[in-house]
Design brief:
Order of helices and strands: EHEEHEHEHEHEHEHEHEH
Strand order of the largest sheet: 4-1-5-10-9-6-7-8
Number of strands: 10
Radius of gyration: 18 Å
Low-confidence stretches: none
Mean pLDDT: 95
Helix content: 25-40%
Number of helices: 9
Shape: globular
Largest sheet: 8 strands, parallel
Length: 325
């Protein structure tokens, strides 16, 4: 089958040479006319002013781009070559506003809305998890433009994280990385009754930290529950969709810091890297409206293993969508 994405021939130009782009996909402005419209544009959001603990995730997109040079296009388990199924591109980096979280959300959302073609799905690489709101908004808007609607209250969501990220305010701030999903729910961008949050664990400040998710109908899944019931939970979630595309958001801290130390709010007892890949693959059959991979903090990384894992999660997400189509 002919490739829709023209990749650099690694048998001629080695992976350690040339200009870094996500997974060596062509830059958006260099995509050939016959490969347009682009199916997925991967772009960076170098922003971490929304963190509540360790800063440094603003350097995440650069680290993930670099690590992704060794990502290849054929997925063994799904038996799919993403470069054959999709036209893929690196959309560059969004402009950011490091001194204002709300202004940054607006600027990134505006950039995402203008990126590529309205039919192009967007995968944002952070940066902290506050950047998810902007990409969710862009994905929701594109679903509306396509006439796909947003379901009962917005997009369904597959959420991998150690934290629910539904806190109303921290230090008087409503737009930090602890709050993207409460803001998206308030704005009708996502449907909490069709949102599954996988990998959630404690300790928490109080029992009340779980209450918002419970009240809104979010399915909250601990790592142990996922290990015991993951296949069943994924099947139940897919049945709710009835073919409607979902948004996938992946916070790298869902992975145990033994496997992903390069993150700002590490939480012990998480998934292994292998379990994380299998958890994404468990949703085979889903169609995606957009995605993000966030919270890689290179300064706390060891031998680039977190960035390398995040780069492969980017690939897993695109391969998941390819398998579903």
């Amino acid at each position: 089958m002919a490739l829709r994405t023209q990749l650099v021939n690694t048998r001629i130009t080695p992976r350690f040479a040339g200009i870094c782009t996500f997974c060596r996909y062509p830059r958006l402005e260099e995509v050939a006319p016959e490969a347009r419209p682009v199916d997925w544009a991967v772009y960076g959001v170098p922003f971490d002013s929304g963190v509540t603990f360790r800063p440094g995730a603003r350097f995440g997109p650069r680290a993930v781009r670099d690590a992704s040079q060794y990502v290849k296009p054929y997925h063994i388990e799904h038996d799919v070559n993403v470069a054959e199924v999709f036209s893929l591109a690196d959309g560059g980096d969004s402009p950011v506003r490091p001194y204002s979280l709300k202004e940054n959300a607006d600027v990134v959302a505006s950039f995402a809305a203008s990126l590529a073609d309205p039919s192009t799905r967007l995968l944002a690489v952070g940066g902290d998890h506050s950047i998810a709101y902007a990409n969710i908004k862009a994905a929701w808007q594109r679903r509306q433009q396509a006439g796909g609607g947003g379901g009962k209250g917005g997009l369904p969501v597959i959420h991998f994280d150690s934290h629910l990220d539904t806190v109303d305010t921290v230090w008087g701030e409503k737009w930090g990385h602890a709050s993207p999903f409460i803001r998206a729910i308030e704005d009708g961008l996502i449907d909490p009754t069709r949102m599954i949050s996988i990998g959630i664990k404690g300790p928490l400040n109080t029992r009340d930290d779980l209450q918002y998710a419970k009240d809104k109908g979010i399915t909250v899944v601990s790592p142990d529950r996922w290990r015991a019931e993951g296949a069943k939970l994924a099947a139940e979630f897919l049945a709710k969709l009835k073919g409607e595309p979902a948004y996938l958001t992946f916070d790298i801290d869902v992975v145990d810091p033994a496997f992903a130390p390069g993150t700002g709010t590490p939480s012990v007892g998480g998934l292994t890297s292998g379990e994380a890949l299998s958890a994404v693959r468990a949703f085979k059959g889903v169609k995606l409206a957009g995605a993000d991979v966030v919270e890689v903090l290179p300064d706390r990384d060891v031998s680039d293993i977190t960035a390398f894992l995040a780069a492969h999660i980017v690939f897993e997400v695109i391969a998941l969508d390819a398998a579903g189509r």
